[in-house]
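for the recovery benchmark. tokens below, seq after
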């Protein structure tokens, strides 16, 4: 009798689980939205999970199956995602009706990464709006112009290193490694307010911990669990950043702020701009934890991405000799005009250099998609000409593919 009861419970549980999975993976079928038939539990993530395709290649493959639709359905495991193809619809979602899609999927878990999860990209609703209002002036052209001198100092260290280290006979470099050192020094001086010469000291602690923080190739499982199953992430205590990383960067910010407060030091960097906001702000309070979170996300976002883009750029310039020669002439002209000391304004006016950088971004996008979460109901136009409008509800995911 007990055995039969146990069998009955197991069968009932399996039937309930089957119907639950079937219901979750029938979302786009019910709405008559174009999609590829998903695999139970894995959705459309199987090629990525089993390392047959990268996430970029996986999305691109499905994207190319629907050339004539405005959007199609994609299952991130059991979660339905609307992948937008139509440029006008992208403009509507990302700009015209941004208030309906202002939140993002969270990669960080507040329970396991409480400090870093306070960064701008992880905040929601009113908290996000207040922090964005607080930080937006930090990244205006006027404020970046103030930091220009700090960036130039890092660039000079970089150029001097290559000029002296290569010698007269030339030398082969791992450009990713060299450019990572440059990116590290720029972030250290602009975001954390300290000078770190990674060319003279390639094993300095800031560089080593920055590499650890920005390295995500060993963290995909944690990221996917935190994104799709946050409760499981909390139960398993999945941290993306070690306590050592958190403590190190918080200590740098705390010591820097304390020293500047006591000695009234003014330095044209991100820390100073946030301290100004701290002193003037009447609304959202910005403390050491907030400063650390914003500076840290700047590090994670810029350290690897900047060095990666520059690495691709040097590769493309190296193999395209016509572009290389034309770019060299343009740069030499600017150096001649400014006696070897180009200003922020002169660099901003270098249209050909800007075109080369933008072309690199187009050829090698750093992210596969921009993700948004619906926060207010919104009606999407029909995906296909003879289709019906679809109402996107709060909590629904939107992806805007970059690579495609």
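predicted aa per position
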């Amino acid at each position: 009798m007990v055995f039969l009861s146990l069998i009955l419970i197991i069968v009932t549980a399996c039937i309930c689980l089957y119907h639950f999975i079937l219901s979750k993976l029938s979302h786009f079928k019910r709405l008559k939205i174009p999609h590829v038939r998903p695999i139970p539990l894995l959705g459309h993530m199987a090629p990525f999970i089993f390392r047959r395709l990268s996430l970029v290649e996986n999305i691109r493959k499905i994207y190319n199956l629907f050339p004539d639709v405005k959007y199609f359905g994609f299952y991130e495991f059991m979660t339905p995602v609307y992948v937008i193809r139509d440029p006008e619809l992208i403009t509507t979602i990302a700009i015209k009706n941004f208030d309906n899609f202002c939140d993002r999927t969270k990669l960080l878990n507040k329970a396991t990464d409480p400090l870093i999860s306070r960064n701008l990209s992880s905040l929601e609703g009113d908290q996000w709006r207040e922090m964005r209002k607080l930080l937006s002036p930090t990244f205006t052209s006027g404020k970046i112009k103030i930091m220009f001198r700090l960036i130039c100092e890092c660039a000079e260290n970089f150029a001097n290193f290559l000029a002296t280290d290569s010698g007269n006979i030339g030398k082969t470099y791992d450009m990713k490694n060299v450019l990572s050192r440059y990116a590290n020094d720029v972030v250290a001086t602009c975001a954390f307010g300290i000078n770190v010469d990674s060319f003279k000291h390639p094993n300095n602690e800031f560089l080593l911990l920055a590499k650890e923080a920005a390295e995500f190739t060993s963290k995909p499982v944690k990221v996917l669990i935190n994104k799709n199953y946050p409760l499981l992430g909390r139960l398993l205590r999945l941290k993306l950043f070690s306590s050592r990383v958190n403590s190190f960067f918080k200590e740098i910010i705390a010591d820097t702020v304390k020293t500047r407060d006591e000695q009234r030091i003014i330095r044209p960097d991100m820390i100073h701009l946030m301290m100004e906001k701290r002193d003037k702000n009447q609304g959202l309070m910005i403390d050491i934890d907030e400063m650390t979170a914003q500076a840290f996300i700047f590090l994670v976002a810029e350290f690897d991405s900047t060095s990666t883009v520059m690495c691709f750029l040097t590769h493309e310039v190296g193999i395209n000799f016509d572009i290389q020669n034309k770019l060299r002439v343009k740069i030499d002209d600017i150096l001649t005009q400014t006696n070897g000391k180009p200003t922020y304004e002169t660099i901003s006016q270098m249209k050909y250099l800007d075109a080369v950088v933008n072309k690199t971004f187009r050829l090698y996008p750093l992210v596969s998609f921009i993700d948004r979460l619906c926060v207010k109901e919104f009606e999407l136009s029909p995906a296909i000409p003879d289709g019906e409008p679809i109402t996107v509800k709060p909590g629904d995911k939107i992806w805007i593919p970059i690579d495609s």
